[in-house]
Amino acid sequence: MTHGDRAYCDRKKDRLASYCGRFAVKEAVMKVLGTGWTRGVRWVDIEVVRAPGAAPRCVLHGASAAIARTKGIATIHVTITHDAGLAAAVAVAET
Hints:
Elements: H1 3-10, H2 15-33, E1 46-49, E2 57-60, H3 62-70, E3 75-83, E4 86-94
Antiparallel strand pairs: 1-2, 3-4
């Protein structure tokens, strides 16, 4: 988790659900990149940012950003849901 991920989740009433949602996004992005948790991709290289009232955005750092550039990925759109003890995320790459 990045510092930004932790700061966001820790402000939430149900912080555990927020953490689970963030981890789900990171896993979905790793699948979009085609790497899983390999080739130097780290949990802190995939960050979920969200401005108040806006949709979540994915920001890549380090090896994740380099892999995305190599594959011609310009943007990764993400959506997160968590309810009733379950968390899920979808990531879609755009060239």
